[in-house]
Amino acid sequence: MENWSAIFFKSFLVYYQIMVMICSLPPNLSYGDFESGTRPEEDIEQDKISYPCHELYYKTVSAKDSKQSLSGTFSGLTQSICKDRKGNGKIPQHSPVCGQSSTPIDQDQGTLGVSKAKLGNFPWQALTFNYGRGGGALLGDRWILTAAHTIYPKDSFFQKNKNVNVFLGHTDIEEIIKLGSHSVRRVIVHPDYHQEESNNFEGDIALLELENSVPLSPNVLPICLPDNETLYGSGLMGFVSGFGMEQGLLVNQLKYVHLPIAKREACETWLLEKNRTEVFSSNMFCAGDSTLKQDACQGDSGGVFAVWDNTTERWVATGIVSWGIDCHKGYGFYTKVLNYVGWLKGIMEGVA
Length: 352
Fold this sequence. Notes:
The protein is an alpha+beta fold. Helix content is 14%, strand content 27%. Strands 7-17-14-19-20-21-18 form a seven-stranded antiparallel β-sheet, with helices on one face. It has a six-stranded antiparallel β-sheet with strand order 11-8-9-10-13-12, covered by helices on one side. A two-stranded antiparallel sheet has the order 1-2.
């Protein structure tokens, strides 16, 4: 007898196939309240929007709201221009809904060490290969948020990335590679990042624009950007996931750890005690505990520190795995994404 999971999965596949058929109607066929067609004089594709096609992963917004904050939905990243049956201009556009996971993460587990992720726990997780293994997170359906040092490593003679390979959609290394890489159209590294300054990870943030929008699915979903300081409170728990090293070896399965945001003073004192000279600026925060033997490690860089926002009920990328001292030996340090939201929005909206 089939279990409920198998029945649900088969039902979802049937539903998905039906939706693909509906969403793939030939040009100039109408559906619902909107019409599909092309206006030759403007050479603009008039994409049909029907709520059943996009209700799983997209939110429909009006054209006048197309520049809304990227902290919620990502209008402007994937847009459809529509006209109603009377030909009245641009109406709704659709944009990916962020911050939802198809397989809930157990947020009450406390700090129980490293765990193996299930499919759908971290659907925004990206695996990158440039000058080594790295991480990233999907924003919208065309952008990957990552760390600048995964593109231009510190203490390296490499000046330009030859090729950045991006993989999405699975928690197993072999399976995610089988799904194929997503071509990168351009790489944008923050101007404050200086590769030659080995002890300074200021501006350790970058965006990868993919050649094509990725099809969203239960295992490929974007995460949200932060919009307020309350997401950085001391003691607030977050999740860090990645395909990095564990006990000196690169893992074959996506792993994650549950960590508290630490008090800034505690991290500053810890760095002084260890006679470290790394820059710990206001554009960074630290997480973990000096007594805990769990942290991000090599190969996890570029992945995000994901926090559940109880107000909006969505996952938010508050930090990016940036630097640390060894692995699993105290605090880890993260790029504070909130301080760069304006820069990110400018790039993704085509302003910068």
